[in-house]
Design brief:
Length: 507
């Protein structure tokens, strides 16, 4: 597990090292410059003729230090100061002075030359306003150069918190950042401007992170198996939980199949699908391992078995392919009124929940227990009333506002899915890819989370692991099928292959 910081959090971690631990800022700056040099050599970048463009803040100081190290190695280096002399930080003044004492001149205009590498040290993570005027001209000219482009800490013009382009931004091939990845380097479009991101250690630590809920964290592949429910030698199907999937209106058997199959694939012991009668035959053929219980919408008491089914289940998952008919509304409301088990609400279930009046939501709030909601951005917009654009620009703040109000776990699906719950830091998912943008992908995710919950994982842990595994399965599927041809069934196969590979790597 690793943390991902905002600009303010990174500055606080920096300040702690400087003011509490006593490591001078110049020492951290030297470490950053050395790590930037090491990263460029790791990537085998041609450093024979470099242009380093520096600003007035400490990011500019990093740039001057890198320019000095390049000159000391005998590389040709041109240095341009794009900031204001009177605005320089003390550290930047010292680094600039040292560089000039070594005989390296610092200009204030960008030369019309060809360089093997262009190094951006203009703004770093501190920028919080739009770039315009002189600075816009500088960054646009830097982007026009043909050489390999490197950003120190973060590309100038990218919000370190949101990934938003602040007017214009440097387009890097490589970003060398320090201590922790920054949120703006992984959210889009910042991720595209950052290129490959290398996180380098310069000795900044904050042991208090694990007790805070205002941070992002990410998982790594080696975290998966240790977080998976244990498979004990002396066990049976009852040991791994019973999932009730309320899914699939008339003609929507595919959603029910995909979610049920995914729940089995991550280890659930028994899956029962409660669906419309017309789906029975195809589901029995597609997934003979599942128990199929059906209702007939034309019957007077069509949902009479629901109370017993909810009592039977350890975990409920409702919404995949459910539709938004009057029958679906009735079934959904009955389920929420009677259910006392952990529950995943997905797809049409979320759209039906969005129709609830404030009184109905308050009534549900008094009865709900351990619910996981899995909305994509449009569904989240319906649930919260915020436009999609506003959700994207303030995603973590609005997501946390929602989970605190509703007291649920929420996996807000996007190119960078977030999972939030009260009392936990926000999980920011970096697995997965654009090949997964196909119908049925969300059904697989819902079933994955429900299957993990059935094995007694806490709801937040199951949502985090489910989202990450789902993305890894998508990465496996893309390797096998390419970027265009991945289907939801390929994600299910990818789940099995991913888990098998990760298990084998531990042996």
């Amino acid at each position: 597990m690793k943390y991902i910081l905002t600009a303010e959090q990174m500055k606080a971690a920096d300040g702690r090292m400087i003011h509490e631990i006593g490591i001078p800022s110049l020492v951290l700056m030297e470490r950053a410059a050395l790590q930037c040099m090491a990263a460029m050599k790791e990537e085998q970048i041609d450093l024979s003729y470099a242009l380093v463009v520096c600003g007035s803040g400490n990011n500019g100081g990093d740039g001057f230090a890198v320019a000095r190290l390049l000159a000391e190695e005998g590389k040709r280096v041109d240095v341009c100061f794009a900031g204001k002399l009177e605005s320089r930080s003390e550290e930047t003044k010292q680094q600039m002075h040292i560089l000039e004492n070594l005989g390296v001149s610092v200009g204030n205009t960008l030369p019309e030359k060809e360089y093997s590498v262009i190094i951006d040290a203009v703004f770093g993570i501190g920028l919080c306003r739009n770039i315009e005027g002189h600075y816009q001209n500088v960054i646009e000219q830097m982007n026009r150069y043909q050489g390999y482009k490197v950003a120190i800490d973060t590309p100038s013009g990218i919000s370190a918190d949101t990934g938003e382009v602040l007017g214009c931004a440097f387009r890097a091939d490589l970003t060398v950042t320090f201590a922790y990845a920054k949120a703006g380097q992984v959210f889009f479009p910042g991720s595209e401007y950052a290129g490959k991101v290398l996180v380098k250690d310069i000795g900044i630590t904050d042991p208090g992170f694990e007790n805070r809920d205002d941070l992002y964290f990410m998982l790594e592949k080696q975290d998966v198996i240790s977080r998976m429910p244990e498979r004990k030698p002396d066990s049976n199907k009852g040991s791994y939980g019973r999932v009730l999937l309320i899914a699939g209106s008339r003609g929507m058997s595919g959603a029910a199949y995909l979610s049920a199959h995914a729940a089995y694939m991550v280890g659930a012991g028994l899956v029962r699908i409660y669906t419309e009668e017309s789906n029975r035959q195809i589901l029995q053929q597609l997934l003979p391992e599942a128990i199929i219980t059906t209702y007939d919408e034309m019957a007077l008491d069509c949902f009479r078995e629901l109370p017993d089914l909810l009592q039977w289940a350890d975990v409920v998952c409702i919404g995949c392919g459910l539709g938004i008919s009057e029958y679906s509304r009735r079934l959904f409301k009955m389920t929420l009124e009677m259910n006392r088990k952990p529950c995943v609400i997905d797809a049409d279930g979320l759209n039906l929940l969005a129709e609830f009046t404030e009184e109905e939501r308050r009534k549900w709030a008094r009865q709900k227990e351990q619910y996981v909601l899995t909305p994509h951005m449009k569904e989240m917009s319906r649930l919260t009333g915020y436009p999609v654009a506003e959700l994207k620009n303030h995603r973590n703040a609005l997501l946390r506002e929602f989970v605190e109000k509703m007291q649920v776990v929420c996996a807000m699906k996007d190119s960078r899915t977030l999972v939030a719950a009260c009392g936990h830091p926000t999980f920011l998912n970096l697995s997965g890819n654009a090949a997964m943008a196909k119908a049925g992908s969300g059904d697989v995710l819902a079933g994955t989370i429900a299957g993990l919950m059935a094995q007694n994982l806490p709801t937040f842990d199951a949502a985090v692991l489910g989202v990450y595994l789902h993305g890894l399965a998508g990465d496996t599927a893309r390797e096998e099928c390419g970027s265009y041809s991945v289907l939801a069934e390929d994600l299910i196969r990818g789940l099995g292959r991913t888990l098998k590979t990760l298990e084998e790597n531990l042996k």
